[in-house]
Structure formats: C-alpha cells, structure tokens
Amino acid sequence: MKNQKPHFTQASKENFFVIGLSYVKADAETRGHFSVSGDVQKDLLEDAQKKGFSSVSIISTCNRTEIYGFAPSAHQLIQLLCDHTQGTVEEFKKVSYVYEEAEAVSHLFRVGTGLDSQILGDFEIISQLRNSFRQSKNIGMLNAYMERLANAVIQASKRIKNETGISSGATSVSFAAVQYIMARVPYVSEKNILLFGVGKIGRNTCENLIKHTQNKHITLINRTKVKAEEVAGKFNLLVKDYSDIQCEIAQTDVLVVATGAQRATITKELLYLKKPLLILDLSIPKNVSEDVTENPLVTLVHLDELSKMTNQTLAQRQEQLPLAKKIIEEVKAEFTTWASHRQFIPTVKALKEKLSEIKAGEIDFQKKKVTDFNEEHAEILANRLIQKITTQVVNHLKNANGSTDHSIELINKVFDLEKTES
Fold first, then answer.
1. 162 and 204, same structural domain?
2. What is the number of structural domains in the chain?
3. Could you tell me if residue 370 is inside a domain?
4. Sheet hosting strand 218-221, strand order edge to edge
5. How far apart, in whole angstroms, are the C-alpha atoms of residue 20 and residue 227?
C-alpha cells in the first residue's frame, strides 16, 4: 500500500539491510520499473527521513537498483522503493535479493569493487556509490556505521584498481559497446555513427568512440539540443535537430541509443534503410522497440548482450579475482573490527564516567578525614586505576567471542550505568 509509514519505535531493533535487484535475475524491462532518477532519489531520501528511517542510501544504474539502510525489517525498505517507482512489492520479490548485517556488508564490498558488475571490474559503480552516500549525508541520512562502511568500500576499490589488473580492458558498458562496434564493423573509422542521447552513458560512449575508433563522422542528437551542443563543442562533432532523426538514421551505419526515456524512442516506423544498420540500445528501460528487427537490414544489440562477450580480456580479469578478494577481506576485516568495538563504546564511556564519579566522591571524603591529604597524588593514582580497569574491560569485550551482549548487560547492571550515546 502506497505511503504506508513504518511503525518505528524506540524498542524497534534496526538492522543493516541491502535490498535490490540487478541484471542477474531482472531483465531490462523489469529493472526499468524500479529505476530511480536523481530527483526521485532525493524525494525518496526525504520521505525516508520523515518516516523515521535513521540511515538510508540508494543507487540506481542501468544494471541495478539497490537501497542500503537501517530498518526493523527489510520490508520497510522494499515498500519505500516501491512507493517511489513504478514497480510493485510482488514484482520486486520475484527478482530481488535481500541481505542483512554481515551478508549486506559483503555484498556492498562486491558491488563497490566491480566484482558484482555485469562486466567484471567495471569501476564506474564506485563513483555512483560515492555520490549516493554523499547525497544521504547532505540531508542527515547517513549514520556513522554507513559512512565508515562507504569509506571502507571506496578504499578497497582504490586498492584493487591500483594493485590488480582487474580493470584492464573494458571497464564500462560504454567501452564494451565501443569494443562491440569495433569487432563487428569493418573500417569503423570511415562509417557514419549517430549517437542519440547525451546523458552520462551517452557522453562516455562518445568519448570512447572518438578515442578508440578515430572516427570523424559522429553525429549527436538529443531532445534538448543545447546539451548535445555542449558535448559536441568539446570534440568538434556535428549536432542535428531531434526533428531530423529519421533522415539521419537513414544515412548512418551505427546508431547508439542512450536516452533516458521511459518508453521506446526508436521504432520501425522511423527506419527507411538502404544499407545495414547496427543499433546498440544502452538505455534502461529499453528505448529501442523490438519491432525494428522486422527490418532485415537491422541488427539490434541491447546492453544485456554486451555482458555475454567472452574474450581474452575477461579471462585475464578472472585471473585477478583471488587477489581482489584478498584485498576485500583485509579491508572488510578492519571495518568489522571497528563495528564490533563500536558496539561497546557507550558502555565503556559510561563506566569511565561512573568510576570518575566514585573517585571524586572518595577524594572529597578523604580530604575531610585525613590530615595533610595529598589530593594531587590521589588524583594521579585514581586516574591510573580507572585507566587500567577500563582497558581491562575493553580487552575483555574485544575477546568476548559471541558473548559481548551478555558482558555489556552484566557491566551495566553491576555499575548501574546510564545509557549514553556513542
């Protein structure tokens, strides 16, 4: 039910979840139903804040949509996503995944380091994750746990990129598209290429085309012409009006579609062809109608098909996986240690305050009772004892081996500690 508020109470225990869907089980059309644009992402985060979520972040790319956050159950996060997309809870459950606590952390590391990408080693995802967490932080929707986790994932991504060869070759859908074109279009530098749509994927594809094909016959079309002119100005490319698209398609050899429309923008009615046409649809949801394949001159490739490329580059990347996974485990272990220690920081802080109260009361008592009482020496001795006691408690909690909660509860009872914020 839309706009149903989660019933968060102080007694509700919130866990860390990842809920999402990706290219693995969800086809392009289904992923399109759960696609969340930049403006909608902001609305979703603000809505989450109003509904009582403590920390939430969202990422939505052509290959996946995921929400990371704290909630009493995953259902609240699933409902939040459905409230702001065209998808339903029932549709989501058919193709989705839900991870909790340690599994959620591991999944985020895989995603952020490109190990879960459609093309292994795609590092475009880390900048999208960074922007996602930054957006949450800017509106006060990123707690210390998720901020630390985000930084750990970014650190692992940097190390893998610098210390392994897993990013060699095609590192993005846009580059994979260019590789596909170069492998299948003879004399590609002499062919006419039309790029429809100059969003992020469109711009990246354009840059890769220029860099790798040496083609000087690239034409740009965008619904908003001024945006196409901005991109064209950097590379000295030709820009045509959207109204000219039918004529331009008739003259082109390769059409790359990377628009952000919610329905097909290229249909068979636009095609009046006299020569073969390769169409690459890099849009989510699909922006090229399947009916274009009724024209015998058309070859249609969607971005899902690009992942099926098996070549030497991908084989070489697979060889780098063990090293990449080792780096992830190292960084994840540091984060896990921090997270486990963070659990008992409020108790240690409260214990230190309690012992300091006892110290102050006892010193005050001895000052009145003992002649020539040396308050300075007593302070030094008492502070050293407090430090040794709290260090002993910290070491015990670090090595509690699954009984940390019980130990914290016992310390709170023995010293009658008041709960403090970490």
1. no
2. 3
3. yes
4. 238-240, 218-221, 193-196, 254-257, 277-281, 298-302
5. 32
Name residue, tokens 């030094």: 380
Q: Is 92 part of any domain?
A: yes
Distance CA 420, CA 422 (A): 7
For tokens 């969340």, name the residue: 36
Is 329 inside a domain boundary?
A: no
Is 297 among the domain residues?
yes
Residues 62, 149 within the same domain: yes
Q: Which domain holds residue 367?
A: 343-415
Same structural domain, 193 and 164: no
Host H or E run for residue 358: helix 345-369
Given the residues 62, 82, 206, 247, the one annotated as active site: 62
Could you count the other beta carbons within 10 Å of the beta carbon of residue 131? Answer: 14
Whether residue 296 is preceded by a cis peptide bond, meaning omega within 30 degrees of 0, is: no
> Does 206 qualify as catalytic in the annotation?
no
What is the CATH classification number for the domain harbouring 79? 3.30.460.30
Q: What is the pLDDT along the chain (422 residues), one digit of tens a residue?
A: 344 445 454 445 789 999 999 999 999 889 999 999 888 999 999 999 999 999 999 999 888 999 999 999 999 999 999 999 999 999 999 999 999 999 999 999 999 998 998 777 777 789 999 999 999 999 999 999 999 999 999 999 999 988 988 766 544 677 778 888 888 888 888 899 999 988 888 888 888 888 888 888 889 999 889 888 888 887 788 889 999 999 999 999 999 998 888 888 999 999 999 999 999 998 878 899 999 999 999 999 987 777 565 455 667 778 888 999 999 999 999 998 888 777 777 787 888 888 888 889 999 898 888 888 898 998 999 899 989 988 888 788 777 666 767 777 888 888 888 755 44
